[in-house]
Amino acid sequence: MFYFFYNSQVYHCGSDAFGWSDLFSFTVMKEGSNWSPRVVVYGDLGNENAQSLARLQEEAVLGKFDAIVHNGDFAYDMDMDDGHIGDAFMEQIQPIAAYYPYMTSPGNHEQSGNFSQYKNRFTMPGNFDSIMYSWNMGPIHFIGFSTEVYYFLQYGLKQVVNQYEWLKQDLMEANKAENRKARPWIITYGHRPMYCSDKSIWDDCSTRNALVRVGIPTLHMFGLEDLFNENGVDLAIWAHEHAYERLWPLYNYTVLNGSLEEPYTNPKAMVHITTGSAGCKENHSSLTDEMPAFVGFRSTDYGYSRIHALDKTKLIVEQISDDQNGKIIDSFTIIRDKHEPYTFY
């Protein structure tokens, strides 16, 4: 049930038969594309050791963001203890999720029962059980999708094919002249990264043939790196690794900076960040001793990322360290004077 006030809505959930929740409120999102949204992004937030959550709650109260993206791996795990871990986790995030759009994507920790806990606890736009969808906020077109379709093939290869075709269509629509003019920034988010500098041999992103990047083994079909670059995706956001990594503009392990002095000004390939260090019981990732040439910055501090679309040509990305009391430990600005497919296509 909703109660309408100027520029905001007050609501509660439930029914007369089973009772009602407390009252909550949210600010109605601004219309159009000519404003500057601020979005918090993270992955891998657990029921235990949810270190970043208190700071996120504080920033929510202060109105420091307009939406939240939780990029896979919830609670650790939502199905455990007959779903009671999932229930407890939903109560933990209520102080932020009840007041702001809480946008999600599935991770590997949601795979039980073909992602049934995830599908039944979160409702995203579209008709695909919150697995793949897109939404607009100001000058940004966001695309959420599942990297897990590549790894849990016991649920069917058809899921890979269907998602790939849907992504093609959504990107085609987003790139229509009138749409890209209104919302030039295209930002994707999915759980497992194409690239990383994790030591673990079990992490697909530490190999040169990450399934999300190149597609199904041997066939090398349905990979997303080519698709995203062909369609001029500006920023790809990942999680899964319990760390933060900022990559240089990158394609097929080749760094394609805009220039030596200003790598993110008119970059020649898509930019990647991995932000999976919100806090969970599995603790930090172990990164390689030597930082690869394709990585610009990395940290294993607990924390989360902020994205701020200043306008239609400038996008600021910051990494907040909870270990360092909210310090901004990394910040960079992507500048694209023209949003279009990258020139090597």
Summarize the topology:
Blueprint: E1 2-5, E2 8-11, E3 14-15, E4 19-20, E5 24-27, E6 38-42, E7 45-46, H1 53-61, E8 67-71, E9 74-75, H2 84-97, E10 102-105, H3 112-121, E11 133-137, E12 140-144, H4 158-174, H5 177-182, E13 185-189, H6 211-214, H7 224-230, E14 235-238, E15 244-247, E16 250-251, E17 254-255, E18 271-275, E19 295-299, E20 303-309, E21 314-321, E22 327-335
Describe this protein's structure.
The chain is globular. The strands form six sheets. The protein has a seven-stranded mixed sheet, with helices on one face. The chain has seven helices and 22 strands. The N and C termini lie far apart (50 Å). Strand 20 (303-309) and strand 21 form a beta hairpin. With 345 residues, it is of the alpha/beta class. The chain has helices at residues 53-61, 84-97, 112-121, 158-174, 177-182, 211-214, 224-230; strands at 2-5, 8-11, 14-15, 19-20, 24-27, 38-42, 45-46, 67-71, 74-75, 102-105, 133-137, 140-144, 185-189, 235-238, 244-247, 250-251, 254-255, 271-275, 295-299, 303-309, 314-321, 327-335.
Number of strands: 22
End-to-end separation in angstroms reads 50 Å
Question: What coarse outline follows from CA principal-axis ratios?
Answer: globular
Proportion of strand residues = 25-35%
User: pLDDT below 50 for ≥5 consecutive residues: which ranges?
Assistant: none
Compute the CA-based radius of gyration. 19 Å
Percent of residues in helices: 10-25%
Strand order of the largest sheet: 11-12-13-14-18-15-19
Q: What is shown here, in short?
A:
The protein has 345 residues and is of the alpha/beta class. It has seven helices and 22 strands.
